[in-house]
Amino acid sequence: MSDMDSSKKFSWIPGIIRHDYLRKLIALCFALLVWWKVSMQIGIEEIIRNVPVNIVTDEKTAILDEGVKYVDLTVRGRSQKRLNLLSPNDFKMEIHIGENSYVPGKPISFNIMKTASMSKPFGVNVTKITPDIQTFRFDRKIVREMPVNAKFTGITSEDYACGEVRLIPDKVMVSGPESVVSMFARVNTEPIYLDQKTVEDFEYAVKISEPGNKVVVTPQKVSAHVEIYKKFDTRTFTGLPVSVLNLPGSGLNIRKISPSNVDVTVNGVKSSIEVMNGSEISAFVDATPVKSTGTCKLKVQCHPSIPEIKISSISPAELEIEITGEK
What we know:
Layout: H1 3-9, H2 15-18, H3 21-41, E1 44-57, E2 61-63, E3 68-77, H4 80-84, E4 92-97, E5 108-111, H5 112-115, E6 117-119, E7 125-130, E8 133-136, E9 138-149, E10 152-153, E11 160-168, E12 171-177, H6 178-181, E13 187-188, E14 192-193, E15 202-207, E16 216-218, E17 221-230, E18 232-245, E19 252-258, E20 261-269, H7 270-274, E21 281-286, E22 294-304, E23 309-315, E24 318-325
Parallel strand pairs: 1-4, 9-13, 10-14, 18-21
Antiparallel strand pairs: 1-3, 2-9, 3-7, 4-6, 5-8, 9-12, 11-17, 12-16, 15-17, 18-20, 19-24, 20-23, 21-22, 22-24
């Protein structure tokens, strides 16, 4: 295409623009840039309150303070309407902490404006952060295996007690700041509830109680297998009188029982034994086998009137009975 044809093609563009247009285009771009910069500097200001500043650490670092701090941002823009629509969620601020950028437990102060990476809406400038200095403490993160201890609240009835407790698993992994995790050697469950109605073994999924700030326990629950047993006691009643049942016929008579009293040892539910006085036990001999006069030995038998009570021993176990003819 000839120069004449090319000039005819752009003849509709005014000569003042067409002549040396590239330099004029560059100058226009610079003018727009300067205009935008000046307009931002002399624009409208607004304060956005409670914007979160998040602390991002690597897997070997734990933060001892709260992982989020809140600041107020003074922002500038050209449109008041646009600024009125802004919220804290429109801004993202993060401070990244590496393993070698701190001394464990020692406070570190950060200039938020200079240190934090910031994401903000286009056309909005942040001119001030309040407070502009934030302080944090960091520590090394460690992981340890620890045994689990079962904790209980409440009580069973006086006749029952809590026996063996098995936890599955009986050990958990505990991770967190070294200065915190090193303070304890075991973790506890949240309280396992007992009451007057707890009369048999049970299984319960219970959470692990949080052992400290910034500490994570894995798994967070264990299965508790709890044994409940009846409380038994033993007691001996001395000098209980012995009676004779089924007196022999055919003119025979019981003349003497030696000894006439026995000592009886019983066992059973503790609460029942504690209120006994001995009258609840009937000691006797059965004279049915006696058919003639003379001396014989009969076995002592006892019958408790309380179902929960069992006879453990009788002393003496046999009595000497003297039988005579009827007078």
